[in-house]
Write a structure and sequence with these properties.
The protein has a six-stranded mixed β-sheet, with helices on both faces. Helices cover 37% and strands 23% of the residues. By secondary structure, it is α/β, with parallel strands linked by helices. A hairpin with a 2-residue loop joins strand 5 (113-118) and strand 6 (121-127). The termini are close together. It has one domain: P-loop containing nucleotide triphosphate hydrolases (Rossmann fold, 3-Layer(aba) Sandwich). Catalyzes ATP-dependent phosphorylation of adenosylcobinamide and addition of GMP to adenosylcobinamide phosphate. One of its GO terms (molecular function) is GTP binding. Its EC number is 2.7.1.156, 2.7.7.62.
């Protein structure tokens, strides 16, 4: 598994396409993906939106990193970093922000590679 993180509009998706030679057709949008899609796709971008959808639908995220590692170990996950800035007033938004951060932390622990993209430039922060 590989985790690509960074702020909004920092070029994460384009970086992944170039770095890992992926086409648009090989990439799944987390906004539109269902729970099981993460276990079958090559690359899931907008992971943070997938988490938001999952919270709304009450998906079970327990042991998600382990499940991905078992079922789809070559998955590339792309997620926005949400933990910076002002803490949201809305309770759901706080839960969404926290859940995304905790899940990304778990994915990073199980990932072979973690890359942070800023201004289209990738910085490897883990390469196991």
């Amino acid at each position: 598994m590989k985790l690509i993180i960074g702020g909004a509009f920092q070029g994460k998706k384009e970086y992944v396409k170039e770095k890992f030679s992926l086409s648009e057709e090989q990439m799944t949008d987390g906004k539109n993906a269902e729970y099981d899609d993460i276990f079958h796709c090559t690359c899931l971008y907008h992971f943070h939106e997938w988490v938001k959808k999952g919270l709304e639908k009450e998906w079970d995220f327990e042991n998600l990193a382990e499940k991905i590692q078992e079922k789809n170990p070559d998955l590339i996950v792309i997620s926005n970093e949400l933990g910076y800035g002002v803490v949201p007033i809305d309770a759901f938004d706080r839960k969404y922000r926290e859940s995304t951060g905790r899940l990304c932390t778990q994915l990073a622990a199980k990932s072979r590679q973690v890359i942070r993209v800023v201004c289209g430039l990738g910085m490897v922060i883990k390469d196991a």
